[in-house]
Amino acid sequence: MKAKKSLFQKYGKENVELGFGQSYAEGNKRLVNKDGSFNIIRINTIRSIYVDLVQMTWKKFFLFVCGFYAGVNVFFGSLYFLLGPGKIHIKADHSLIYQYLECISFSVQTLATVGYGVLHPDSFWSNFLTSMEALFGILIFAIMTGLCYTRFSRPVPGYKFSEKAIIAPYQNINSLQVRLANQRRTNIVEVEATLIFSMDADDNGNNKRVFLNLALERNKIQYLPLSWTIVHPITTDSPLYNKTSEDLKIGNAELMLIVKAHDDAYAQTIHANTSYIFEEIVWGAKFTPSYYTGKNGIVIFEIDQLGNYTPAELNKTENVIQTSSN
Q1: CATH class of the domain defined by 57-153
Q2: Highest mean pLDDT range out of 77-81, 83-87, 290-294?
Q3: Could you give the CA distance from residue 145 to residue 138 in angstroms, rounded to a whole number?
Q4: What is the 3-state secondary structure (H, E, C) of 26-89?
Q5: CA-CA distance, 191 to 220, in Å (whole number)?
């Protein structure tokens, strides 16, 4: 495929490999979704029930637990019914539906090992069946307890990223900026950020996907009690130098932000990532403050205003990124 004239041609030797490959895939809107997941559908993968149960939402997990619990009791209740309701002291003068429901109730008592009242096994096979169900119940409750603990103890990042990346004035030049904050009431320390710029580049007449690490004003901070504005100064060494918004569009540009930090509550390292395609980069803007000092001297941080910005005139110097005419 012949490369387009306005694609990036000089991208240096700092190309990094993120695992997406460098072959040009025309039509891909983005590589990383806003929620941090990859915009990829993998076919013929190996499924893991454990992984699915740990990663599914709490709503789906509880629905699964309730459905599984009901299914197990219906299964064993049906076996008791086929064995004969009289084997567990259910009176035969009741209707079949009543006897069947009593068998399911007996299964619930056996599975949970809550003890018996009027209903109890009264034959070899009914005792054998209750023994198997009690063993099965011990195993199932142990597994469910482990799954619940894993889901509660699993660290889940609570980062909030600005909805847009912006091109903002910075000192006597301009910069690319992204803002993030911690939404959870936990303390995270040693926060590190990596900002990667991806675009289609001209490689000897062929289209090639290139990934470049963007140099940051600072790539690590010790604490994140408020917001952190990640700044990439657009100098002559930047791949964004003298590029326009139209260039980013034609180059199918995408920014990928990777954040790593240590969460004190979980005592573990947590990771999160997001991305911004060319349509989500605002040219000529600056972030507005999202916190202020209250009357009692305590800082008030309004996280929902993290991504707010106002128009700002870019610096018009030789190091500036010129906006397109669109």
Answers
A1: mainly alpha
A2: 77-81
A3: 11
A4: CCCCCCECCCCCECCCCCCCCCCHHHHHHHCCHHHHHHHHHHHHHHHHHHHHHHHHHHCHHHHC
A5: 6
pLDDT tens digits, one per residue of 266-275: 788 888 889 9
Structure tokens at 288: 């507005």
Q: Of 132, 135, 130, nearest to 119 (Cα)?
A: 130
Burial of 78 (0-12, 13-18, 19+ CB in 10 A): middle
- How many angstroms separate the CA atoms of 186 and 208, rounded? 42
Name the residue ranges covered by the structural domains of the chain: 57-153, 159-311
Residue 6 falls in which region: left (phi positive, over 0), alpha (psi -120 to 50) or beta: alpha
CATH class in words for 159-311: mainly beta
pTM of the model: 0.72
The H or E element that residue 197 is part of is strand 188-203
